[in-house]
Amino acid sequence: MHPDDQGPDGADTSEDDPRGQNHTGEGLTYSSSVDSLTDDDSDEETEDAVDLCLHSCDMGDHFVFPYYHLYDFQIFEIQPREWRTFPFAHWEPSLFGFNPGEGKKEKWIKTAKADSPLNRLMKMVGFDDVKKEFLSVLHRVKAARLNAAQSPSIRSLRLDLLISGDAESERSMIADLYKKLLEFLGVSSGCCWTKRDGVDCNMEDEEPGVIVLDNNISFYDHDRDKHVLIGLGSREHIRNILSQSWANGRFHVRLDLKGYSEDELLTILVDELKERNLRVQGGLSAPFLRMFVRQMRNRQDDPNNVGLEQVKAEITKVVSRRAEHLETSTRSEDKSINRLSHLFSKLVESDFFGTYPSKFYDESESFKKLDRMAGMEKVKQAVKELVSRGQINYVRATQGMKPLTTSPNYVFLGPPGTGKTTAATLFGHILADLGYVESREVVLKKPTDFLGRYVGHSEKQTKEILDETEGKVLIIDEAHSFYHGTEYGIDGSDIYRKGIIDTIVANVDNEPGGNRCIILMGYPDRMKEFYRNTNPGFQRRFPLEDAFVFENYDDGVLSQIMDIMLAHDQATATDGGKAVGMELLRRQRDLPSFGNGGAVRNLLSSAYIRYNKRIEAEEGQGSDKPTPPSSNDDRAQIMLQPQDFDPQYDRGLRNSQDLRSLFHNLVGFETIIGTFEGYQTMTANMNTRGLNPREEVPFSFIFKGPPGSGKTTTARALGKMYYSMGFLGTTEVMDCSVTDLIGTHVGQTGPKVKNLLEQALGKVLFIDEAYRLGILRDAFTWEAVGELVDCMTKERYMNKLVIVLAGYERSMDQLLSTNEGLRSRFTEIVFPRLRPKDCLRLLQAKLLDKKINILRPRAGHVQQRVLVLFKKLGETASWANARDVGAIAKEITRQLFTKPLPAGQPMEITLEEIVRVLKRFYRDRKSKREEEEASDSSES
Q1: Secondary structure of 46-82 as H, E, C letters
Q2: Quick one: DSSP state of residue 696?
Q3: Nearest residue to 207 (alpha-carbon basis) of 228, 222, 238
Q4: C-beta separation of 649 from 865 below 8 A
Q5: What is the domain extent for residue 912?
Q6: 493 and 389 housed in the same domain
Q7: What value does the mean pLDDT take over residues 469-492?
Q8: End position of a domain, from candidates 313, 331, 354
Q9: Is the pLDDT of residue 698 over 90?
Q10: Does residue 807 sit in the same domain as residue 913?
Q11: pTM
Q12: Residue 700: closest CA among 718, 675, 724
């Protein structure tokens, strides 16, 4: 028994005096001896009671708190029997209840302060070790004050303190309370210095104060006994501090904040609900409240990380869910929100755990929108899997079990117009509805939003975006733009984009259960190239193999989209009109810029414009003064016809006639025209029988023949031919040369070939003078040929563009011999030299285009002389067939139009005059050949 526990006669008062009885309440043992402390108590009784309280603070292993029920600091204030000199009296002595201004009747004044640091700490749930140490500090300061014989230093009171723990906010809170306690007790003047991250602080003030060591392990390098040191940090950080020699002799107490237990969190939850005047179905002792607390702990990697702030945040979410449930009820039951306002503060189980996922399909507006969209089957299936997992998690949560987690990151791949952005936005809302993320807010960004203006700025902007989207859904569109590609044979990334990727890797993990969702969107091929050349950590966080792949819509999906858009526009289309529209979409599908759903919208927009023009023309309303609309105006009832989609929708019925019109200026093409007419007939017959003609009609050609034999003209006609057959989305012909295929250094040629093919999708790619690929015979040309052959077999390009290689016959044969795959994949068409009579027919046609007629010769041998001259010209090495015939026609036209011409007189020329022109051409060609031969002989 402690001497102070004895009465005036030495008897033990701890048993007899009712104030010394111990009581147990709320699971805590406390002494009720101070319950009788009032203003009427004698000084002796007051001092005995306080001493009893102080000495009950046993510093052994079994510490009993006698103060849990007391939040008034006055229990520690006593009246001394005599005047005593207190070494800290000059530091706000009134805090100890002492006022020297009262003269001989000086006495201790009870200063009950409800907001005192100790009272604040005692009101908190948990922190048992902290409360023990604070009371110990109070005890030591109290004892020092009552010791008049000595004037102890701050160092001797051992007030320096180390505080460790995972939660920085809790460490700072306890440190702040400790600083205020020391100031409250008069130990500190209130001055405080903070040492953060190695930045020194100014402590020139001579007044005693508190020094806080925050995130610095090598701070104390001077002896400052008059200051109290408080060290804050993680457990590893505190161990580093204690590893220094000066720290071992300085710090004698270390407080390790362990976090709240399940019971303590439940107490905090109940207290917060009371504080907000919220009622709970079943009362504050409802069993599901404990399950709710357990769910909060289970969602954390370390359950001890759940603290007061997390509980407050969770209650805010519960209240938000309550508001949403009431709003839904008002919509479904047609009630006023005011009539349900009394239910707002009464929480039910579904407010804590969310709506049971079985009701998700009926209540989620986002899923209803997604379900109405065509072509989203993979995303819909993923949502169903999330709902199934959510049902399991709901049951597990109500039973206090850990939830099954899912990856927080997703990748959406697909060409433009396939609905990636819409699907990703709805998917984000669905994740929020199912409770996988906190907020329903979806933030859409592009790589350009992450880029900064200088080195280091991109990383800062990236970190800011990630911080701002915590608890939300972040969509990064066109994510492939984080990498420029190797189109020109060089590394397409840069330090800015690499910095962005590295920052994302450093701040985003792939651990399931995180409070964040990031969705990347991009084009499949470019995303694959990006992944091959990026940080491996980025690949692990956003696995490409698990991506949602959005393919170009097939005919069925495009038809559904057209029906949905027509219904939305309150318009209709005849079966024939819709068939023509679908045919146009099929042609456009191979174009690199095909927009899928966007293409349908553009098609309908153009059709509406043609519809208005057609109706106006049919009603004779093409004047500048349109007829005012009336209530019975039929124009409002839109029904699209085939011609509204395509004015030339019946071109397929005129294919044979249209084909021959493409070659009306060419002669001697009967064989070539017959070949393409055969392709047209095959296509029509296979289409009528439901077969795919693409597998039978060739899409790659070798045009070989002498110059001017019609290769280029035929290639340009192919665009219109294959468009009319429904194989191409446009009549465009892309002209290029061999230099457009070949790079300047190793590794550049392949990407250039792919880039060229990508641009030519849905078109005709015409490579003139392609024989140069076989003449050069170097690594670059071989790479170009090999890449071209390889790409032709890939699904991306096969039968989706027409490729024409043109050149002279012998040189093209040499090219074909360089690669066996080249010969087997191309259909050869030989363009012969023009015969003399074909040259004359072609000359006559070209002159007729200029309205020049050739008069019938007076003698039959004149025409024969023309044919002989054409034959001689054809035997010259530089003869260019149709091209030279065109040159002859231009010369004749020039001669005729440079003469004076009477008005109204027809333009005519005789064969004799043509003979003179042909002779002059022949002499020029012959003299040029002789000059070249003479030059060659002189050089030799």
Answers
A1: HHHHHHHHHHCCCCCCCCCCCCCCCCCHHHHCCCCCC
A2: T
A3: 228
A4: no
A5: 836-939
A6: yes
A7: 75
A8: 354
A9: yes
A10: no
A11: 0.55
A12: 718
What confidence tens digit (pLDDT) does each residue in 789-806 have?
999 888 888 888 999 999
In whole angstroms, give the CA distance from residue 867 to residue 439.
Answer: 86
Q: How many structural domains does the chain have?
A: 6
For the ranges 165-174, 208-217, 284-293, 471-480, the lowest mean pLDDT is seen at 208-217
- Residue 474 has a pLDDT of 93
Whether residues 887 and 913 fall in one domain? yes
531 and 385 within one domain: yes
- One domain, residues 562 and 527: no
Q: What are phi and psi of 658, to 5 degrees?
A: -65, -35
Q: In this predicted model, what pLDDT tens digit does every residue of 246-262 receive, in sequence order?
A: 777 778 788 888 777 77
Spatial CB neighbours of 359, under 8 Å, sequence gap ≥ 6: none
> Which of 161, 188, 203 corresponds to the end of one domain?
203
Lowest mean pLDDT among 62-66, 357-361, 505-509, 839-843: 62-66
The torsion of the CA quartet 772, 774, 775, 777, rounded to 10 degrees, works out to 120
Token code pair at residue 452: 């900064």
Chain centre to alpha carbon of residue 517: 9
Q: Are residues 866 and 809 in the same domain?
A: no
Q: What is the DSSP letter of 88?
A: T
User: 196: which strand partners?
Assistant: 199, 214
Tokens standing for 878? Answer: 């530089």
Residue found under tokens 């009630």: 335
Cα gap 32→608, rounded to integer Å: 89
Which uninterrupted H or E stretch holds 674? helix 670-688
Mean of per-residue pLDDT scores for the chain: 75
Same domain assignment for residues 842 and 767: no
515/594 same-domain check: no
In a domain, 28, yes or no: no
